[in-house]
Design goal:
Helix content: 40-55%
Shape: elongated
Order of helices and strands: HHHHHEEEEEEEEEEH
Number of helices: 6
Largest sheet: 8 strands, antiparallel
Length: 373
């Protein structure tokens, strides 16, 4: 390549301008990264609120089930007491102790109010039924209280669902924002790499041309020295030194999670993993190399098991679909995609992730995920 003297004179200025641009270039990238971190923090906060709302719903569901069961038992006991009292009243009528109108009222069952029935019974049966009447009255009060509590719980459940939907929406918005910010960051980094490569090529051209001119001025054309090797450009891949971290975050994309291990869940269960919120369709990858297989259940929906070469078993569930990868898989192999299958249907899309050391009982995966995700 031939470079004119005028070009040589202009090169330092051009390089200076380029260096200035390069110095200014990383600023937007840094700003984007800072905003990306803020978005991740907000998403994780929303994920914590989602987990809290789900726990509240689970507790409400558990109490509602217990109250409904108690109400059903109370109603059954009331029916027994009512039957016993009616039999006593009929028996007294047969013996001449009650009038037909009273017996008729007693036999109307649920069509007569509790207060009227209690009054009729009190006037129609012998004194030795006072204990039965008192039990009937108390059972009626218990039933009314149970129905009132069920109504309160229904309202609480509706409010908790509103909070869950709101916080899930906030988490989803932040995750989508992370996608855009991450794209901006990658574009800025690529622009910086391209600018650095141009600078390196320009510097190499200056050195090469300077050496050529120096050789011409010295008259040593017959002993032309080979041009010095251009400096490595920024586009060259750095030497690979490997990584000491064998575990890979199972969600390959924007994500948000909190330490929700042990929190209440439906059916009286306790959460035995970490829920990693992420947009539907985000790839779910093998955290380590090992053997993978798909799994299906009514509770978890579409799931996978990964028997890792590290001796641990990993379980992920609520997937939207599986990738089809099975058997021997390398670390980072896509196993499926984030969804809301199983009992998570209709809720925020996420991966429920578990770690079973040595294939045994599950342990809290949050510390591992917090380090690697």
């Amino acid at each position: 390549m031939t470079v004119s003297v005028g070009t040589l004179l202009r090169v330092p200025t051009a390089i200076a301008v380029l260096i200035t641009l390069l110095a200014a270039g990383p600023v937007p990238a840094g700003a984007a990264e800072s905003e990306l971190e803020r978005s991740r923090r907000r998403a994780n906060e929303a994920a914590a609120e989602v987990a809290e709302a789900r726990s509240e719903l689970a507790e409400i569901e558990q109490e509602s089930s217990a109250v409904a069961s108690r109400a059903a038992e109370t109603e059954a006991r009331l029916a027994q007491l009512r039957g016993a009292l009616q039999e006593q009243a009929v028996d007294r009528f047969i013996r001449g102790g009650a009038d037909p109108g009273t017996v008729s009222l007693l036999l109307q069952g649920d069509d007569i109010s509790t207060a009227v029935r209690a009054d009729v019974l009190a006037r129609s049966v012998s004194a030795n039924t006072d204990e039965v009447l008192e039990e009937y009255r108390l059972a009626s009060e218990d039933l009314a209280l149970a129905k009132g509590r069920l109504s309160d719980l229904e309202q609480q459940s509706a409010k908790a669902l509103e909070v869950l939907d709101d916080r899930a929406g906030a988490a989803t918005a932040e995750l989508q924002r992370q996608v855009a910010l991450d794209a901006e960051r990658r574009a800025a980094e690529e622009a910086a790499r391209a600018a650095a490569a141009r600078q390196a090529r320009a510097e190499a051209a200056v050195r090469t041309e300077a050496e050529r001119l120096a050789r011409e001025r010295s008259g040593a054309r017959s002993r032309t020295a080979p041009p010095s090797r251009p400096a490595a450009t920024a586009t060259e891949a750095p030497p690979s030194g490997g990584s000491s971290r064998d575990f890979l975050c199972p969600v390959d994309g924007p994500r948000a999670f909190t330490n929700d291990w042990g929190q209440p869940r439906s059916g009286g269960r306790r959460h035995q993993g970490t829920d990693i919120l992420s947009p539907r369709g985000t790839p779910v990858v093998a955290s380590v190399s090992g053997s993978a297989r798909g799994h299906q259940s009514s509770l978890g929906g579409i799931s996978y098991y990964l028997t890792g070469d590290d001796g641990n078993t990993y379980f992920g569930t609520h997937l939207d679909s599986l990738s089809g990868a099975s058997g021997r898989v390398a670390r980072g192999t896509v196993l499926g995609y984030v969804g809301d299958s199983g009992n998570a249907r209709g809720g925020p899309t996420h991966l429920h992730f578990e770690i079973h050391p040595g294939g045994g009982a599950a342990v809290n995966p949050y510390p591992t995920l917090a380090e690697h995700c």
